[in-house]
Amino acid sequence: MVIAAESIETMDDLLERIGNVPLSRIRAKPAPGTATEADVIAAKQSLNRRCELVEGVLVEKAMGFKESVLGLELGMLLKLFVKARRLGLVAGADGFVRLMPGLVRIPDLAFVSWDRLPGRKIPDAPIPDLAPDLVVEILSPSNTKAEMTLKRRNYLDAGVRLIWFVDPGSRTVLVIHHDREDRLLGQADRLDGDEILPGFSVQLEELFAELDQTGN
Predict the structure, then answer these.
(1) How confident is the model at residue 5 (pLDDT cuts 50, 70, 90)?
(2) Distance from first CA to last CA of the chain, Å, rounded?
(3) Which of 104, 117, 191, 195 gives 20 to 30 Å between its CA and that of 36?
(4) In a 10 Å sphere around its CB, with 0-12 CB exposed, 13-18 middle and 19+ buried, how is residue 30 labelled?
């Protein structure tokens, strides 16, 4: 839901509502509280900026080069697994989804089973109404704890069944289920697809080793 600009009394109020993200990631135009999905699309097409829509505010998506390398590697593994079994679709970092009216998120990776896709086809809309089965967020230094807590709530409320918060800094993955306790995995553990992607598994030490590549 878009909030009226006059209802924002202070910048602290605004920041708290959207997860205390750094000001450098908040677009000033259109005015915070007045942004719409049309502005999300315009920011991508005209400015090449990937922005989420939260409380009528355009919030730039945080993603660095290192995070992109890790996300691409995990995405490739997911894509190969899903495509070979014809389970659905895997979207990358430009996969906008409308979780509810006025709330647009951009998971770094998302798996959507065919049963969740209208007509079992790829949506034509640039921002489809869609709650993926699995979403993956590759954490960047500018992601705040409050922001990720809000994202977690947004995803689960929309019907997402499984969330992976991948932290390149600590080389851990927080596994969040819609119906059970969280699990924090380290490099000695294997990340699996549980009942969402049964049979999918990756050793985290091998995944995070992508960050140690050199040209020597």
Answers:
(1) very low
(2) 52
(3) 117
(4) middle
For 8-62, how does the pLDDT look when each residue is reduced to its tens digit (9 = 90+)? 677 788 888 999 999 999 999 999 889 999 999 999 999 999 999 999 999 999 8
- Per-residue b/e over 82-109, b at no fewer than 16 CB within 10 Å? beeeebbbbbbbebbbbbeebbbbbbbb
How far is it, in rounded angstroms, from Cα 109 to Cα 106? 8
Contact 133, 88 (CB under 8 A): yes
State yes or no: pLDDT of 181 exceeds 50. yes
In the chain, which residue ranges form alpha helices assigned H by DSSP?
11-17, 37-47, 65-85, 145-158, 204-208
Pair 123, 186: CB distance under 8 Å: no
Residue 61 DSSP one-character state:
P
Q: What are the respective helix, strand and coil percentages of the chain, to the nearest 5? A: 35, 25, 40
Mean pLDDT across the chain, nearest whole number? 93
Task: In whole angstroms, give the CA distance from residue 33 to residue 28.
Answer: 10
pTM of the model: 0.93
* Interatomic CA distance for residues 99 and 97, integer angstroms: 6
